[in-house]
Amino acid sequence: MAPHPFTILSIEETRIARDVVLSLHPDSVVDFREIFLKEPNKELMKQYLEFEHTAQPGQSAQSKRPPRLAKCQYDIIGADKIPEYHESIIDVETRKREKHEVIGKQFHASLTLWEFDHLVKACDESEEFQNILKEFKLPDGFELVIEPWPYGGLDFGAENRRYFQGLCFAQNMKSGNPDSNFYAYPLPIIPVMDAHTRKICRVDRLATGGKGDGLTGKTHSERILDHCEQAEYVPELLSGGTRTDMKPINISQPEGTSFKVTDSSLVEWQKWSFRVSFNPREGAVLHDVRYEGRSIIYRLSLSEMSVPYADARAPFHRKQAFDFGDGGAGNCANNLTLGCDCLGVIKYFDAVIVGSDGEPKKHPNVVCLHEQDNGIGWKHTNWRTGRAVVTRQRELVVQFIITLANYEYVFAYKLDTAGGITLEVRATGIVSVVNIDFGKTSDYGNVVSGGVLAQNHQHIFAARVDPAIDGHNNTVIYEESHTAPWDKETNPNGNFYEIRKTVVNRSEGLDAAPQHNRTFKIINPNKKNKHSGNPVGYKFQPPPTQKLLASPGSLQAQRALFAQHHVWVTKYEEDELYAAGRYTLQSQLEVGGVHDMVKRKDEVTNEDLVVWSVFGLTHNPRVEDWPVMPSEIFQVHFKPSDFFERNPAIDVPSTKNEASVLTNECCSTSQKL
Amino acid sequence: MAPHPFTILSIEETRIARDVVLSLHPDSVVDFREIFLKEPNKELMKQYLEFEHTAQPGQSAQSKRPPRLAKCQYDIIGADKIPEYHESIIDVETRKREKHEVIGKQFHASLTLWEFDHLVKACDESEEFQNILKEFKLPDGFELVIEPWPYGGLDFGAENRRYFQGLCFAQNMKSGNPDSNFYAYPLPIIPVMDAHTRKICRVDRLATGGKGDGLTGKTHSERILDHCEQAEYVPELLSGGTRTDMKPINISQPEGTSFKVTDSSLVEWQKWSFRVSFNPREGAVLHDVRYEGRSIIYRLSLSEMSVPYADARAPFHRKQAFDFGDGGAGNCANNLTLGCDCLGVIKYFDAVIVGSDGEPKKHPNVVCLHEQDNGIGWKHTNWRTGRAVVTRQRELVVQFIITLANYEYVFAYKLDTAGGITLEVRATGIVSVVNIDFGKTSDYGNVVSGGVLAQNHQHIFAARVDPAIDGHNNTVIYEESHTAPWDKETNPNGNFYEIRKTVVNRSEGLDAAPQHNRTFKIINPNKKNKHSGNPVGYKFQPPPTQKLLASPGSLQAQRALFAQHHVWVTKYEEDELYAAGRYTLQSQLEVGGVHDMVKRKDEVTNEDLVVWSVFGLTHNPRVEDWPVMPSEIFQVHFKPSDFFERNPAIDVPSTKNEASVLTNECCSTSQKL
């Protein structure tokens, strides 16, 4: 049987796509970047899903299957020519190319990890860089480490070539441990590589001054690392070792999990069903999310994030990663480990990844799936009788974790027994740091350790929700609660407040307004709740986090126009998946992102629409973020709002958990009161 | 050995206090309301704690012990007189009265649960009420249920007597089950009892109309319950029963807990230490919270909450509970059950409660203490070596749950391995409802079931933080991040943003400002972080939830002036524990609350100060909140900010949890990919 249309390409399918591309460029060197599932056209999928969910036993949806397509991204390398970036759509069943685009030079393909290797090699080979390096006397036993980064926004007016930059550190290798934390020893130089020539074309020197030293204050003392301090996190190097008094918490499911996974990608759990896929850019994606067969979301994904740095000194304005568009969240996904990244009974999903030769291989354990308890779900005690009924909230978690050089992000989709869907992001890892002269402080960040300035920055995330509330024709409204005027006829005691509803008629960007309790509802205007008479819907309150701070018109702001609003509502258009546009690497302007989409001013009432949720963190580091920062947690909650006819968790059993014990029954170390 | 000064009064101590009071009022009838620990004078406690934490082995802090005091609240009942409300402070060691106050008639003592019984009895005995009741034909097998409520704010100009009101419902007793959900059958009458005469003095008739019916639209059909629908939540009455496919999640600690409890009230866990107490008004309180012996918080408590309803129709403006001041959160605390309210290895704390005769008895299991896992604490992968170090975030949870008629609240203090303290509130239980005519909808709420209007309302909580950041002299500042002007000299690329700091010099009320990333820091200006040079501190971002919506000057607004701001900073004064003042029952104006405290305009820099955090929920009910609402969760996070010299969780071990398993290893029901 052929795979479900939302199931990712198998290794075999990926290889077919690769071979077709190679056969179509017989006289060229083809350097592959990505090969992954081109998701089916939505109109075809609507028909397929409609058939699949209403099919009688024995009826097969196979005949309705849309074509099985692979998106192939690759460079064509010619002698002495700048490589040409191509994108092809290959039908892996007919082995035909359905579409072919040569992407213009104004856009840069997302980076690949092997381009990072080129940078390290170019530094090795660069006489200029090696000479500059000699200006610094590294302490004995220290070795250079180059941390490749995307180049950031190409300065206005600069020549449009492909670049990479390297942040430089020194690593204490006296212990022989390659995981000694080199970020504690930043060097104030940034080599820049021309990606076409694979040569270092420039070495930027970084200011190391503090308050009052202006934009260019540089010490460049040859003993620049002498005031830096060791800051280890791997347990075997940790001064003082790890604590020994933390007793294990074990989570077990002796009767098995409440979820099941069938047909590779279909997850069913507590009346929910959905498909999981994974792609190099967005990581894990949920499709066709339903509750008791009722459609809620067609596609749910993390779409983009931007991390602009606020240090005013050049070239730090170019520290601005787009971690989905530049390098691909899926590419950077961790291979998860049982008992570390998730506790309990875990189901892992693998993905497929390709090398520059297009050869696919398994990318194991990139997504984990498990159930967890989230405290009291609902409770009521009848105080007359003393009868308490208490149920737990159970969650199903789809999680993936990415590492982007120093930082990590933990992304999770959580479905719960109350019909809610929560998007959770945890930011952890190591903050990005630069050298600062001994004894100085700075307006650009916080000194978190000797000589180490953790620069102020923001993380702005965009999630994409393609809703299908009981069907694809939906409307977005927002509701606010307002103090009503004190009025003898309508509000004689001054306690009344009114709920104001606003329909989003045309595509636009909107903001959170917690002072008015602004709540967005995605409704199906064609179906009403039998009790309330309101249209069925799901609601969310956008986290009212600070928006992008970079000045309007600046490189940082222009590249991330999606960060201008907390919520965007757009009409569904094929292939519009990315909040900051398809091509973010070295961009000077967001092109084809949500800011462009809303310019169409499409009608979005009773339409197939998309809702984008933008939220983030202004991260002015604290000393406690060093050397590895404790997770900062963000959540966006989507909750049913008159979608159901009662609390969907009302039938969750209030069974007593028999494994729970009193401290004095469990062990000898705890004390009795 | 005498109890620690923060340990609650024992049954014996409580009885002594009772006996002393009785002996001082020999010729009167004494009706007790509460007897509980009067916490020691702070100046004395500072000295005691200083000695306790620096004492050499063998040295005893006993000689520094402040007096052991009981606060006794009681009515003196005279023949035909309105009872007189008294408060006495009794020294339970010397058996002497230290203070005696006769509270003036302008204030009402908090209610007791036995006053609710009086109301039910008065309704039984009231001819007027019984006659009105006969206007309604209850369905066969239905019985009246009266839900006593505080009277709410006394209308401006009304006679100042003590009243109680009863919300009326009918219960389907055909099943014989006394836990059948009577809230599904609301009756449109409210009997009002004069608490002094214990007689029904008035029966208010409620409007049952909908949109367009104005403030007084009443149907009062005798068959008013015919369009109501059964809405059960106890499992044995649930139509369709409970789901059967939810497999248990068991949490175990085979090596015991990581915490220990000694000396009745001292909790030590993962470098944290604190004392737990419990009182009738605030429930669980934390005292002397320290990390590695360094003081952080002197006292942490939930202080007040107000729940005003927005239905414009009289007498609903008087639906406004102050659940701490009116009835006492501690009095309404649930006796918690193992395996239901908390999972894992649990330690319970008991409290002591008195009857109207002052006789104390154990109030068992009112607080639970347990550890839990909260996902990934920090993680970093060195992508060069592939080495991942991942640690879990562990939390210690101090939880109590209260039932206030229809509603419940789950309050938790969570301490974590990253040095953070989280206050969590979950709102659950049954929304407050009134009858609405068949087929109508309303501007005052949402129809969640046939004939049942769930009225719009707010929940506004106030937490009280008495900080002691490395000592008692602290300062509050707030920091904001602002776009900086684009300027060739200081911000040539437009990416710089500036951090603006404001010192709170004098006591005042302040607001959240998420658009500026406004972050409050409680600092010790006398001690600097060795890396950053910043004063050591803890920070929090006030949740920017909507403030009170009732019109300024209205009864609801005047009674809850604390709800005018998200943050209040006041200078510490003895006995200022309650955000809305000591006496909230039937208040017309907040007296002695934070709004009055800030009027002193005390200097609060480098002072012993108190920070109040106000947050809440505008709750416009959805159908999914019926019949029991899924928990709505609120959290306030206090995090170290340059308090430590590195991430305090950096030494948490990254040990693999050996109990975690793959789905295909755990059971047969899950499917392999």
Q: Helical element count of chain A?
A: 7
Task: Estimate the global geometry of chain A from the Cα principal axes.
Answer: globular
User: Any low-confidence stretches of chain A, pLDDT <50, length ≥5?
Assistant: 668-673
Question: What's the pLDDT, averaged over the residues of chain A?
Answer: 95
Please bin the fraction of helical residues of chain A.
under 10%
Domain Copper amine oxidase catalytic (chains A, B): 249-650
Subunit structure (chains A, B): Homodimer.
GO molecular function, one term (chains A, B): primary methylamine oxidase activity
Cofactor (chains A, B): Cu cation
Overview of the molecule:
Chains A, B: Keywords: Copper, Disulfide bond, Metal-binding, Oxidoreductase, TPQ. Chains A, B: The active site is at 323 (proton acceptor), 407 (schiff-base intermediate with substrate). Chains A, B: The modification 2',4',5'-topaquinone is found at residue 407. Chains A, B: It is an enzyme of class 1 (oxidoreductase). Chains A, B: This is Amine oxidase. Two copies of one chain form a homodimer. By secondary structure, chain A is mainly β. In chain A, 9% of the residues lie in helices and 41% in strands. Chain A has seven helices and 34 strands. In chain A, the strands form five sheets. In chain A, strands 11, 12, 13, 14, 15, 16, 25, 28, 31 and 32 form a ten-stranded antiparallel β-sheet that branches. The first copy, chain A, has a ten-stranded antiparallel β-sheet with strand order 17-18-19-20-21-33-30-29-26-27. In chain A, a hairpin with a 2-residue loop joins β12 (266-269) and β13 (272-279). The radius of gyration of chain A is 27 Å and the shape is globular. The first copy, chain A, starts with 10 loop residues before the first helix and ends in a 7-residue tail after the last helix. Chains A and B meet through β10, β11, β17, β18 and β19 of A and β10, β11, β17, β18 and β19 of B.
